[in-house]
Structures are given as structure tokens and as C-alpha cells.
Amino acid sequence: MGTVIEVQKISKQYSGATEYSLNGVSLSIKRGDKLGIFGPNGAGKTTLISIICGIIKQSEGEVIFNDGESSIELRSMLYKIGYVPQDFSFYPELTPYQNLMYFGALYDITKTELKQKIKSLLSVLGLSHVTHKKVGKFSGGMKRRVNLAIGIINDPAILFLDEPTVGVDVQSKNAIMTYLEELNRTGTTIIYTSHHMNEGQEFCNRIVLLDQGKLIADDSLQHLLKEYNESSLEALFLSLTGIEYRD
């Protein structure tokens, strides 16, 4: 599998901060990865994803994108990237259909194609029955599915997910993770962060652990468990980051 994103010694110090939120992080993201980024609160997970997606600018280092043959600029990659943030990224006063029409238009998808995509997505994500109802009145699980639909309306080659199942019921969580598995099987590279260790252990084929802005582990879960003689991702996480409270 070829490398699609190369992160080279990325550091980030926010204005007014005395410490780095990220400190010299380097990693390669391979095509077809299901890469899980884990760490305690404040470890730098969201900061790292935001830098890679171009939402915020790093203080030091470089992010290199590759289209399979040569490196390309972020601007050329934006249409190939999907991002599903932890916070809801839709207009609650609009319906799923209206939200998806708006966000889909940003990618210059033709109206005919967009309508077909919306119909298919809402069906797959179990939202067809609320196509024309205001999202603000939805349950948490339904809102998460709308959030996901917006993030993948452009059929991204690379999908970033920041806590995609936080605060949802078991059924919604299962539906979301099953659909993400299908996306990955059909070629989508997925970068995922979550506090759900069991979910991450089942879903990810590669684990990155961050702590205090630094990368402390990067390998397949199988290799990491063997190396540190641990039985689960949660046990590995506590072994490497400690059991003390984090803010």
C-alpha cells in the first residue's frame, strides 16, 4: 500500500500557550489504512487531525500528500478529503436533504448526481424517513449519522473521523461502524480518533498513541500488544500513558 499522507516532525504551539500541543510528531498514512489515533485528553489528537486537514496551521514541520504518483498540495487534495468533526457540523434548522444539498454543492457536484447521492446515503444510514424533517429535533444518534453523511457526500478517498460515535445509542454506533467498515473495504482510507477503546480495537488495523503532544507508539495493535505484553488496547493505553487523572 502506498503512502497517501506523510507527516514530518509536526509541532504546534497555540498563541499564548507555554507548552506545545504537538511536539515533533511524524507518521505515514498508507492507502487503505484504518488508523486509530488515541491518547488522553489534551494529547493532541484533534490538533493533529486539524493540521492534516488544513483547518489549522502547524508551527513547525510539514504535511505531504501523495496521489499515488507524486506529492501534491493540500488545495488539490481538499476535494478528496472528508472530515467528520466531534462537534455537529450542520444547520439544525434545515433538513438532512437541505443540509446535504448545501454541503454537496460546495464540491461542485451536479444537482442530478447530488440528489442521487443524498437518496442513497440517507437510505444506507437509516434516515430516509426523516429526509425532510428539521435536524435540530433529531436524537443524538440520528444527528451523528447526518454529521457522517455530510462528511462523506463527496466520496472522499481519505476520511477523518473525530469521535464519530460519541454520545449515541448502541444501535446507531453499530450502524455507523458497520458503514465505515464498508467504506474502507471499497477503498477509503480512514483516520479515526475516539475514547472508545473497545470500538477502536475492533475497528482499527493500526494504532497511534499520543501523550502530551508526542507520539509514543505506532504499529499494528497485534504487534503493540505483543511488544508490551498486554491483552487489550485499553490495557496498552493505560500502561503507556499512566492511570493518573487528566484534565
Question: Short description, anyone?
Answer:
The protein is α/β, with parallel strands linked by helices. Helix content is 36%, strand content 24%. Helix 3 (96-105) packs across helix 4 (111-124) and helix 5 runs parallel beside helix 6 (170-185).
Give a structural overview.
The chain is 36% helix and 24% strand. The protein has 247 residues and is of the alpha/beta class. The chain has one domain (3-241): Rossmann fold, CATH 3.40.50. The strands form two sheets. Strands 6-7-8-3-9-10 form a six-stranded mixed β-sheet, with helices on both faces. It has a four-stranded antiparallel β-sheet with strand order 2-1-4-5. Helix 6 (170-185) links the parallel strand 7 (158-162) and strand 8 (189-193). Helix 3 (96-105) packs across helix 4 and helix 5 packs parallel to helix 6 (170-185). The radius of gyration is 18 Å and the shape is globular. The mean pLDDT is 91.
